[in-house]
């Protein structure tokens, strides 16, 4: 699973300044032009220690910051996600950015808030450019590995020290250190997977929060990393014909769906508040009011279809997607191979792809005669992933997947009061753990919804 807006998942290809132009002089103008700039939330007039401030920071404030991240990525590319990677315990632990902390401490007046966004974006970019300069200063050639081990070791040592200094060795600083070392190896033509494994083996869990590494430890890790490199760590040609839709179908068949959920007390539940609507109004409306309007219109149709028990198939998704995209006609099933996650996943297309898609969606309601039953939350998660990896539309598939999950729940009388774990996340077609993770997330939200609904009913005046 990848949290879409979390910088710790960024690769060097995604952040390499040489690949992604940026003009710091125009950054303020760009930020001011983005949708979220027109709706900076108003912080509550309470003390920082008040629970209401924490609720606001983790709710409305976080969704606005997420919307700003989304808008920056749309404008600049995924490298821009790092603007919120604050020092210590900010939005994301252990980053190199001091200009932003978190909604509680960084969202004030609109003018001050947007100035902090610009400063944090430029600070993050400056850090990336300094790293890029280091990588260029040590042009490592795997073909000359035997002659360059001392150079690799020296570079690794200096990178560790730079990250330690930049992050202040605060909470979780070692995560970014691991990432920078991985970037360095990958920039030196070591495969991404090998780079991660080599760095993890060299560090061996010996870095800790709030603790600066001593010289002996830094030297040992740098030496181990340099000695572990082999000429065959260089990348192999990628398989252009890999089909991640087929990978998903194989994973789908292997997942123990009956055990993927704890059930959470089957039966309808009416939430104390509408989590889907709240998230759309806070996140999507901040990105673009028209986007939110389309999604809210689609959500209304989804719930009407669920009330009448409509069969889940591509035709139903088409009717929702027409609202999502504000299209004059229902958008057709894609007519070509599709790509996602920056081209890392490729979804094939055959003559029976749509038919297989409909067959998979039909299982959201059919538990199968003579088989162990599959809990509602697991079926909702499975249908969500079906939409992700069949990737039926040319645009808006993440929103289509979310609406599908909402539909499967709503058809059995269930709605959620929070959906933050279900949006702005990505799942990998080949990872057999991701379906279980998503099912657990749906379970968590449903359990909390039931508890909140019970508590709300208990406080209703008689």
UniProtKB/TrEMBL annotation:
InterPro entries listed in its UniProt record: Fido, Fido-like_dom_sf
Domain of life from the UniProt record: Bacteria
Species of the source: Streptacidiphilus fuscans
Name of the protein in question: Fic family protein
Limits of the Fido domain: 312-447
């Amino acid at each position: 699973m990848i949290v879409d807006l979390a910088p710790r998942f960024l690769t060097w290809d995604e952040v390499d300044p040489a690949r992604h132009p940026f003009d710091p002089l125009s950054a303020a103008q760009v930020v001011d032009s983005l949708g979220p700039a027109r709706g900076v939330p108003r912080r509550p007039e309470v003390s920082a220690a008040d629970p209401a401030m924490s609720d606001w920071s983790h709710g409305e404030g976080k969704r606005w910051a997420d919307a700003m991240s989304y808008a920056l990525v749309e404008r600049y590319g995924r490298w821009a996600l790092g603007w919120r990677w604050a020092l210590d315990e900010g939005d994301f632990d252990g980053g190199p950015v001091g200009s932003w902390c978190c909604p509680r401490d960084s969202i004030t007046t609109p003018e001050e808030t947007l100035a902090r966004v610009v400063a944090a974006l430029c600070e993050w970019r400056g850090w990336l450019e300094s790293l890029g300069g280091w990588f260029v200063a040590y042009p490592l050639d795997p073909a000359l590995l035997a002659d360059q081990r001392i150079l690799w070791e020296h570079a690794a040592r200096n990178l560790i020290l730079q990250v330690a200094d930049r992050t202040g060795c605060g909470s979780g600083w070692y995560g970014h250190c691991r990432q920078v070392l991985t970037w360095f190896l990958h920039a030196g033509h070591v495969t991404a997977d090998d780079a991660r494994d080599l760095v993890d083996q060299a560090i061996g869990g010996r870095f800790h929060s709030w603790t600066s590494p001593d010289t002996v430890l830094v030297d040992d890790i740098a030496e181990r990393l340099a000695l572990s490199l082999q000429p065959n760590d260089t990348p192999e040609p990628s398989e252009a014909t890999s089909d991640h839709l087929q990978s998903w179908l194989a994973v789908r068949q292997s997942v123990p769906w009956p055990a993927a959920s704890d059930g959470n007390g089957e039966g309808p539940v009416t939430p104390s508040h509408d989590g889907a609507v709240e998230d759309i109004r806070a996140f999507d409306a901040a990105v673009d009011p028209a986007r939110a309007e389309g999604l809210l219109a689609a959500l209304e149709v989804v719930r009407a279809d669920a009330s009448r028990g409509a069969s889940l198939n591509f035709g139903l998704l088409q009717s929702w997607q027409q609202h999502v995209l504000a299209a004059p006609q229902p958008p057709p099933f894609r007519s070509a191979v599709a790509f996602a996650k920056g081209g890392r996943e490729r979804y094939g297309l055959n003559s029976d792809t749509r038919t297989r898609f409909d067959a998979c969606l039909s299982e959201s309601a059919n538990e199968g005669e003579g088989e162990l039953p599959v809990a509602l939350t697991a079926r909702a998660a499975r249908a969500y992933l079906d939409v992700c990896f069949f990737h039926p539309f040319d645009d808006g598939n993440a929103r289509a997947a979310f609406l599908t999950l909402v539909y499967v729940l709503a058809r059995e009388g269930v709605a959620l009061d929070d959906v933050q774990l279900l949006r702005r996340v990505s799942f990998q077609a080949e990872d057999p753990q991701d379906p279980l993770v998503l099912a657990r997330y749906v379970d968590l939200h449903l359990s909390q919804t039931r508890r909140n609904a019970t508590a709300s009913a208990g406080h209703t005046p008689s």
